[in-house]
Amino acid sequence: MTQLVIQHYARPTARRHLWIGMAMAVVAVAFGIEQAVHWLAAHPMAAQGLEASLLAGAATGLGAIPVLMLRRPSERLMAPMLGLAGGMMLAASLFSLLVPAVQTVMASDAVWSLGIATAGALLAGVAAMQMLDRRLPHEHVEEVESSGMQPNVALVVAAIAIHNVPEGLAVGVAAAAGADHGMSLGIALQNIPEGWIVASAMVALGAAPLRAALIALGTGLVEPVGGLFGVIASTLAGAALPMALAAAAGAMLWVVSHEMIPASHQPGRVGAGTAGLATGFAVMTVLAAAF
Fold this sequence. Notes:
By secondary structure, this protein is mostly helical. It folds into two domains: 1-42; 44-290, no CATH class. The chain contains eleven helices and no strands. It has helices spanning 2-10, 12-42, 44-63, 75-106, 111-135, 153-176, 183-204, 209-220, 223-237, 241-264, 270-290.
């Protein structure tokens, strides 16, 4: 890099080419932003979906604030907190994704074929998350202290990102399809205790409290990335909208089954985890009814 800088100042022609390249990059970025703004203005539901996923992700940073003043949640408290998050995700995948998908299939002229395709999309969402989990190296945040080992911080962050992408995808798809039914609010609420857990795990790995809170916020902001894919899929799906909804539901179901329930149902904590799961499902039921 140093040699490039020296050559840059030693050669005026190269310097002129560098400035031309930088100007072209700025113009390209500005053009991309302008086109994105026009596209979102033409698709208000897509803009709503992207905004919903951004707010849901930002709630993770809100939940990380207690780590600046409090210690890591106790093992007794973590079980119902994780169960609560899992229950809300499970209910959201049902009320905001699967039910609207089934209703759309029932109103179509090809119930059986579209229904089978929708069920296949659900399984495809599960399979996609399973493949992502196998191929990307990561460490589960809930096992930071219980494992007795010191995992790599980057691997823990990768695990959180894997968890957050399907949440953003589901929120984006549901909100853009007009089937939110309180889902974005519910995901935001369940992200608050998750933010505390994530930030606490970062502190356990040696990060300062403020840095841990910022890392938790950063992992939450992965959700708008998934939300962007969700709103695009929902906008372009057309008649295949039930399949987009079902695929997002499958991704959410994988997270609940593979991560949330096992983490909240450790030996000695099964009752607390189940109580949290049921409470989260009940809370999301109220939100779905209210919205």
